[in-house]
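Notebook, p. 212. Picked up where the previous page left off. The plan for this session was modest: take the two constructs that came back from the sequencing core last week, fold each one, and keep the raw output in the notebook itself so nobody has to go hunting through shared drives later. Recording the first one now, exactly as returned: residue sequence, then the structure token string.
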Amino acid sequence: MRQTISDVMNTKTLTKNHLDQYPVWKWSEFNDERCPVLNFDPLPDDEPTLFIKARFKTPEGEEFDGYLTGRETFYAFTLFVGEASIQFNLNLPKLITDQWMRLRQIINKPEMSLFPLHYETNVHFKHKQNIQGILTVSN
């Protein structure tokens, strides 16, 4: 059953269900929560940070649903694994290592590589193709 906009208007934590219903979210300073962006074709130019539903693929071919954080460049991403949400911030290498270990433990693949991580969305910026690219982390 699809929730109404009032059911999901504000949330502190995004879930896969939220993103399945509304693939683009923004941060609301007024409520200190995330809110869905209802008109995202094209993506709004006036929002500094967006949370955009994406599909991710590791070098070994493991695929995950999740979301990107940023705008035309992305500094963070979240992967959904079962009931878990695993957040990665490319600016925080220690956190990446901890979360990567957590991911490998949850899926029981201790040797899995995470980077380079391919992503693709079904949304885009004005006059551009769907957002896709590769996330890497420097050592």
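Okay, moving on. Second construct, recorded in the same format:
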Amino acid sequence: MYTSEVGMTQSLLKKFLACPRACKYYLEGYRKIGLKKPMWFGSLMHYILHIWKSQLVVGNTECQPEDVLSSPLLEAYMEEQMLEFPEDVEEINKLRAVGSALLYSYAAQYAEEMKQQKWIASEIQFKEAFRGHILRGMADGIVECADGLYIIDHKFKGRQSASMASLLSRDFQVEFYYTALIQAGYDIKGFIYDVIRPPQIKPRKTETHEAYTARLLGDTLERPEFYFKRYNITFKQNELQEMRFNLLKLLDRFKTWIDMGMDDVYYSTGCAMSGGGECPYLSMCTTGDDLGYTKVETFFEELPKEKGVDNGR
């Protein structure tokens, strides 16, 4: 059973803010059966980039995309996914082709800049106390720039607004990660956000994965400004104070809801009607039936399920 003492991640708080009923289903362990394509692709790209960034952390600036893509770590990850989703092997192979093309193009866009930075950590997991709450999560990385330490984060968005910089500065993840890593002892100056647009090009009927990857690579190299945007976000002191105040109010609201037994579980129509996609709990919400769902033993999907790592239960 979930309690507030377990801690909370920014994604869990976002679920609560979006729809308390869906959040309750999530905390009860319900997950929709089958491959969740957007989430799986984001996880794949994070893992591919993590392999590369891990080499930068240890000073291997000569690591190339082909080294990452042929890594035994990546092969083991792909085998694990195919075993977990055997009915989605073709889709997984297609998404791997997309990920491979994006890595080559990402490296062409940012590799030299990344080599000049001092990489402090990649995929840094945290569990920090903050004013009666436990903040948990995993940041993509921390780099040291000329003016100090920056959190680096990668977002994968098919739709990108002209106001993206302003939207990112109000992203709940910013105030959550900034506060947690300050509590962990890092003197964070700001964020580097890499916003990556997943290609929408579909494979042709008789096209091999190699040919599909090459076609994707050609397009992403030809139009880097379409696929890649980098935003550097820093904050003034009054903005940081406002962020912490806002975060604390949200944390208090969530903790109160949990401590009162999640009794107030109204649903949000925006969760089902927005352009962000169908809520994974829509059928359970409307019918009360858990057919098509499985139950899992973790509260935090984004944290590693490795031996010795507490990911929620």
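Notes on construct two before I forget. The beta strands are 8-9, 30-32, 118-130, 133-145, 148-156, 188-196, 228-234, 293-295.
Flagging for discussion at group meeting.
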